[in-house]
Write a structure and sequence with these properties.
Elements lengths: L5 H15 L17 H26 L2 E17 L4 E6 L6 E2 L4 E5 L2 H58 L4 H31 L11 H18 L2 E3 L4 E4 L9 E2 L4 E18 L11 E6 L6 E13 L21 E8 L12 E7 L3
Antiparallel strand pairs: 1-8, 1-12, 2-4, 2-7, 3-6, 4-5, 6-8, 8-11, 9-10, 9-12, 10-11
Helix pairs in contact: 3-4, 3-5
């Protein structure tokens, strides 16, 4: 019924409006009520998504030149110290996490076997020197034998000359001539033997061009002594660099040390950098020298600046023990990662420990 009678509609609307409207200030004043506009609400509903989209676009454009990774770790120079000679440990001068300076004693190996080696070398040198003196004496004796043999030859030659002259005048016999010829030949043989013995003695005293003037046996003893002295000096192992001692639990007094096997490690101080492994798809705009920012999981409040020091020459798989072989039918493409070295430009307020997890962000537009 109400839909068919407009008067009822108007009256109801008028009474409702009058009830909702505030009381008039004066009797007979007319109150005009306007309907709310729906286009304002629609504009508000559309503006919010537009603002959000614009904010996302602005943020993306402001940060699209940044690349970041959390596959990064603090690295430091590490020196593995090993014993250069074998032997039993008699003294340990360091302990785990101790700070050492270059030249500090790390450990000492029993030096007594190497003292004995030096004494043996001295004995070898002395024996060689005695042998040389004996050969020099023998050489001088051979010279005297040659002089005696030469005198015998001269005497036998004179006897032969006299007998030959007598034989020519018929005052000698053939038997006497044969006797003096035999004596002359014997004298000449003795002279040849003496000269040969002298040459042999002189050859025994000869020196090689590699070490002129030094007997080879004496030289061998001197080299042996130098080696013994060198090994004796290596019984004290000292720190090649300053840093923090690590893996010192293997140093125990009485333990046998093997030459060449790592005994202790030293982590160098003040030489930290970050090794970040970026995806190959993030290297298009990366260059050496670009600025970087560093955050550390261990120190949430530490934020350091750095720069790209170098970009690796190969992916991680290329330097693995078993490189990937993709020349087969089961090949699956895997995004490779390249090691990027980040130099730290600021001094950290907290100690940077080797292996700390790091978050790295590089400004490739810088």
């Amino acid at each position: 019924m109400a839909e068919g009678d407009p008067r009822i509609d108007t009256a109801a609307a008028t009474s409702a409006t009058a009830a909702d409207a505030p009381a008039a200030d004066a009797p007979g004043e007319t109150v005009v009520v306007r309907k709310p506009r729906r286009w304002g609400r629609l504009l508000l509903m559309l503006s919010l998504p537009a603002i959000l989209i614009a904010g996302v676009l602005i943020y993306y454009r402001a940060n699209d030149h940044y690349v970041s990774t959390d596959n990064a770790y603090v690295q430091q120079d590490k020196v593995s110290v090993s014993a250069e000679v074998s032997g039993r440990l008699v003294e340990v001068g360091v302990k785990e996490n101790q700070i050492v300076h270059q030249g500090d004693l790390l450990f000492r190996i029993d030096p007594e076997p190497y003292r004995i080696s030096m004494a043996q070398a001295d004995a070898s040198i002395a024996a060689a020197q005695v042998r040389v003196v004996g050969m020099e004496t023998d050489l001088s004796t051979k010279a005297a034998d040659i002089a005696t043999a030469r005198a015998s030859v001269n005497y036998a030659q004179g006897q032969y000359n006299r007998e030959a002259a007598l034989m020519a005048r018929g005052f000698s016999t053939r038997a006497r001539i044969d006797a003096v010829v035999q004596a002359l030949a014997a004298a000449r043989g003795q002279l040849a033997n003496a000269e040969g013995a002298q040459a042999k003695a002189r050859a025994a005293l000869a020196t090689a061009p590699a070490a002129p003037g030094v007997d080879p046996a004496v030289l061998a003893g001197q080299v042996q002594k130098r080696k013994a002295n060198y090994d004796f000096g290596k019984t004290e192992i000292r720190a090649p660099i300053g840093g923090v001692i690590s893996q010192a639990d293997r140093l125990l007094v009485g333990q046998m040390m093997t030459q060449g096997l790592p005994a202790v490690s030293i982590v160098a101080n003040g030489q930290s950098w970050v090794e970040a492994n970026f995806k190959e798809t993030e290297l298009a705009n990366m260059r050496v020298g670009q600025p970087a920012e560093l955050w550390f999981d261990a120190y949430p409040g530490v934020h350091l600046r750095g720069h790209v020091a170098s970009i690796g020459a190969g992916t991680g798989s290329e330097f693995s023990i078993l490189p990937a072989q993709n020349a087969n039918g089961n090949w699956v493409k895997v995004t490779q990662r390249i090691s990027v070295r980040i130099a730290i430009d600021q001094t950290s307020p907290r100690p940077l420990i080797a292996g700390l997890s790091t978050y790295v962000r590089i400004d490739t537009g810088g």
